[in-house]
Amino acid sequence: MAKAKPARAPATASKDKGNGGYQADSIQVLKGLEAVRRRPAMYIGSVSARGLHHLVYEVVDNSVDEALAGFSTKIAVTIHQDNAITVVDDGRGIPVDTHKTEKKPGVEVALTMLHAGGKFDKSTYKVSGGLHGVGVSVVNALSEKLEVWVDRDGKRHHMAFERGETTKKLEVIGKAKGTGTTVWFKPDTSIFTETRFDYATLANRLRELAFLNKSLTITLKDERKGQAKEETFFYKGGLAEFVKYLLGNRKPLHPKPIVFDATREGVQVEGAIQYDEGYNENTFSFVNNINTHEGGTHLTGFKAALTRTINEWAKKDGLLKKEEFTLTGDDIREGLTCVLHVKVKDPQFEGQTKTKLGNSEVEGIVKTVVNDALGEFLDKNPSVARAIIAKAVSAARAREAARKARELVRRKNALEGGLLPGKLADCSLTDPKLCELYLVEGDSAGGSAKQGRDRGYQAILPLRGKILNVQKARVDKILSNEEIRTMITALGTGVGEDFNLDEARYHKIIIMTDADVDGAHIRTLLLTFFYKELKHLIDAGYIYIAQPPLFRIAKGKEEFYAYDEKERDGFVKRLTNGAEGHGSVVIQRYKGLGEMNPDQLWKTTMDPATRTILKVEMEDAVEASELFETLMGDEVEPRRKFIEANAKFVRNLDV
Ligand code: 0RA
Predict the structure, then answer these.
(1) Tens-place pLDDT, residues 538-548
(2) Active site residues
(3) Mapping DSSP to helix (H, G, I), strand (E, B) and coil, where does residue 650 land?
(4) Is the CB of 120 within 6 Å of ligand 1?
(5) How do residues 508-555 score in pLDDT, each as one tens digit?
(6) Quick check: CB of 241 below 6 Å from ligand 1?
(7) Does the domain spanning 420-548+615-649 belong to CATH 3.30.70.1450?
């Protein structure tokens, strides 16, 4: 019977079947990695693109740990022709001497035993938490092949594996000048649903790591045909440069980021903040290089300190009248871009995605560090202090105005006795579960939709392009926009604190815009508005996107509608190769919904029997909010990218 080693047994390990005859140790090892292969998502989150990229992060995190411990300064990542990956670092190299209890080379233990990482006391701060830190053995288990080269003690060592099993034992293959580790692996295509690495995805994480570790140089090289590329990420300024990067070309309120870096009770607290003239907050927090999307004690401490310090300074300076007026945290964080990075020895990660720091002692530590540093900065830079406070005061006023605007929407509705907007062509049924509201771009398309619809359960609200202007505005402005107000009235739910999902007049709200760039822009703006002001409608799964066709292909009496080029070409082929007919094939490209007659619009886009509508999902709200932040900013490029990537939010589904 195999010896039980609970410390190493994975949570998912099946019951010991007692493989007598095999060495206890080898059974244990096999079982460990087999558990990973059987339930990979348990270890890397998913077997989709995200999980695939996680393999790279896992190896890189180990290299970063060497950097945190002060031994490594360079990490090089290469995406090879065949979607294999190499990660090279100049750290100490994975130990090659015989492990005391396992009686195997350390490198073999690290790569074949689950959670073997904890067996080494390698550095004070480790990248560990959430899905990180599961260990390189997990990468090994999920790789068709993996090879490792370790430079240590003047020698170059080598080992090879297949699907987690050792195929070449540790061997010295030559001399080595310095120290370091090279890991080459080819993800197992039988496990992952996505097998191509996305350069931008890897670049984003590596760039982030370089910002977070200012002494680190990280390179990323893509060797694949047609997309060869190489970038080096190195930021001497660390978090201050990170903030500048995040700020993009938004106009800063003060010339330089405010930075702090102090260690108390073994916790290192690093941060950089800068205000811009906009209205959005952009806060990113990290613990040991991991993005704490859900925040936690470090962020709570930071926010409390910021609110307190700014209020105190404002009072001291006579900018606020004694107790009569206090700025709220939200007021003070308007226009703030912030990166907070703390290093904690024994981080406790909580929350749905295990990205929320739970260590209670960290809150007070961060608060003290930020109070001290920020207080000192404000005293030394009174003009910056006053600019920040003036901005927060104006935010407070705007918030008050927004409250009034919301009330106005509510009162107006009450006053009008629930009267619906004149522009709305409502449906005759009243059960919201059955009713659909089409938000249609432009009056002409609105006209076609009104004529083409099934008026029993389909309502039409034409919107003009004007909502474009709300994109950078504060809530009070947004709510004073005619189009937006009309929409809210039609939806019936109210907005902000007044929101009530039960009052929704339709359970399907379908955004129908032109299939061009302008249409995508309007759709994105509507999504942004829903996200910011009517999030619950997205949560409830009420928001959809219509999919109008791009082409009509006709020959004689036969006609087809195509939703992309490929489909179009298919239909054209069919019509040209088909039985001899007369007349030629006519291809019409729809530039807008308005070019379709009511009947065509119904058939292609509105008839539940034939249409495709995409449900907007906020599955990854964190990612979404970051993207929306990007979208709300002044930068054009990220906005364009967002619009292109908009499909990320939608899941193919027709009901
Ligand atoms: C265990 C112990 C030590 C280093 C490492 C693992 C290590 C792992 C990886 C994975 C990629 N690069 C790596 N670099 C180092 C500490 C070794 C010592 O104490 O000398």
Answers:
(1) 888 899 989 89
(2) 441, 514, 516, 518
(3) strand
(4) yes
(5) 999 998 877 777 777 877 887 887 778 789 888 899 989 899 899 999
(6) no
(7) no
